[in-house]
Amino acid sequence: MGDYTITHEGGIAEYRLTRPESRNSLTFEMYQALENLCRDPGDARVIVLTAEGEKAFASGTDISNFKDFHSAQDAIDYEAMIGRVIDAVQTASVPVIASLHGIVAGGGAAIAAAADIRLGTHDTKFGMPIARTLGNCLSIANLNRLVHLLGESRTRYLLLTAEFLPISPLVESGFISEVLDTADLCDRRARELSAHLLTLAPLTVSATRDGLNRLAQRATPEDTDLIQRCYLSDDFAEGIDAFFAKRKANWSGR
User: Fold this and answer.
1) Which CATH number fits the domain that encloses residue 170?
2) CA gap 249, 46 in Å, rounded
3) Is 191 domain-assigned?
4) How far apart are CA 51 and CA 199, in angstroms?
5) What does each C-alpha distance from 233 to 57, 128, 135, 188, 237 come to in angstroms?
6) The total number of structural domains that make up the chain
7) Residue 139: inside a domain, yes or no?
8) Of the residues 55, 128, 191, 201, which has the maximum number of CB atoms within 10 A of its CB?
């Protein structure tokens, strides 16, 4: 089995992460496949995002992808790629439902935040612990999306503490719409909701999604200097080394 599967059945396309041994960390190929599906869902009228394994929906980008980062352009190109993927999820021509469980972090969290509807389990934990792990930063577009969904104070807490939000505040903020007991039940409910959406007026659904996306749009300031500040730093290199050495990073602020 590969790193992901895409199945089409009865008007529903399901994109499933299949790397449970790495907590479904995302490779560039996995990101690209998701973008392609959202840009062109074929005859599907709903997309479901789900994942195998008990520990995580997705733990973020596979850290090995960062080993070859040597220039400002590498960092800018990476953030641009992530931006295209997240934009594809949010602006897909059909609704996107995310079935979440366990750890939802980094790129996986950004993908979940771009979905239309998010379901979770009691053990769902949402976070962007980059201040503890890699020492990189989020693009302003992704910061804007989190502020819109979670509120500024929760987003500040999330990123400045590098802690995870448990299911309760995710439900309170409206980020998670329904909570199921297990990942399997969460997947089943996502498919049920998808089948229900297929019975509704397509133009009403599309107009509602497009209208809400327009309301969420805000001017996005320039962030190239912020990306360069983090991705070209000694701390970013230290974060990668520490990850593979399985030790805590020794941050220097340089």
Assistant:
1) 3.90.226.10
2) 42
3) no
4) 26
5) 29, 19, 9, 44, 7
6) 1
7) yes
8) 128
What's the CA gap between 114 and 87, in Å, rounded? 8
- Please state, in angstroms and as integers, the Cα–Cα distance from residue 147 to each residue in 132, 156, 226, 250, following that order: 20, 9, 18, 29
Give mean pLDDT, residues 173-199. 97
In a domain, 38, yes or no: yes
Domain residues for the domain of 86 are 4-181
Residues 6+ apart with CB under 8 A from 10: 195, 198
Write down the residue that tokens 């590498």 correspond to.
Answer: 74
Question: What is the band of 11 on the pLDDT scale with cuts at 50, 70, 90?
Answer: very high
Report the distance separating Cα 21 and Cα 249, nearest Å: 23
3-state per-residue secondary structure call for the chain: CCCEEEEEECCEEEEEECCHHHCCCECHHHHHHHHHHHHCCCCCCEEEEEECCCCEEECCECHHHHCCCCCHHHHHHHHHHHHHHHHHHHCCCCCEEEECCEEEEHHHHHHHHHCCEEEEECCCEEECHHHCCCCCCCCHHHHHHHHHHHCHHHHHHHHHHCCCECHHHHHHCCCCCEEECCHHHHHHHHHHHHHHHCCCCHHHHHHHHHHHHHHHCCCCCCCHHHHHHHHCCHHHHHHHHHHHHCCCCCCCCC
Return d(Cα 42, Cα 11) in angstroms, integer: 9
Tokens of 251: 């941050």
Residue with tokens 């969904």: 149
Give yes or no for residue 162 having a pLDDT over 90: yes
The token pair that represents 183 in the structure block: 């990942």
Instruction: Report yes or no on 212 lying in a domain.
Output: no
